[in-house]
Design goal:
The protein has 95 residues and is mainly β. It contains two helices and five strands; from the N terminus they run ααβββββ. The protein has helices at 4-9, 21-27, and strands at residues 31-35, 39-44, 51-65, 69-83, 87-94. Strands 1, 2, 3, 4 and 5 form a five-stranded antiparallel beta sheet that branches. The N and C termini lie far apart (30 Å).
Length: 95
């Protein structure tokens, strides 16, 4: 089942694919980037009630320029489910 869902979002976990999301965030100037491995199970979307089969946590920080500089710490949960071999539904919840 190495399809679009896991191959493109794998970060190299259980796949021969190179990490994508973590390096992308780092190239965008994000610091302290962590992308946890996908956890399998049954997970429900908080606001949509839909069911997902995998989830991971992504965290990073960056300096935001306002009147001065402010450290912004971001954490979000990504959940996904695959439908067949060609469809991947992803939900991202910001915290």
């Amino acid at each position: 089942r190495d399809n679009i869902g896991i191959a493109q979002w794998s970060e190299g976990n259980n796949s021969d694919k190179e990490p994508i999301y973590g390096p992308f965030l780092e190239k965008q100037g994000k610091n302290n980037v962590t992308v946890s491995p996908w956890e399998s199970g049954t997970f429900e979307g908080d606001y949509c009630g839909e069911t997902y089969t995998e989830k991971r946590i992504v965290a990073f920080s960056f300096m935001k320029q306002t009147i001065g500089q402010t450290l912004v710490e971001v954490k979000h949960t990504q959940q996904l489910r695959r439908e067949g071999d060609d469809r991947c539904i992803v939900q991202i919840k910001m915290e």
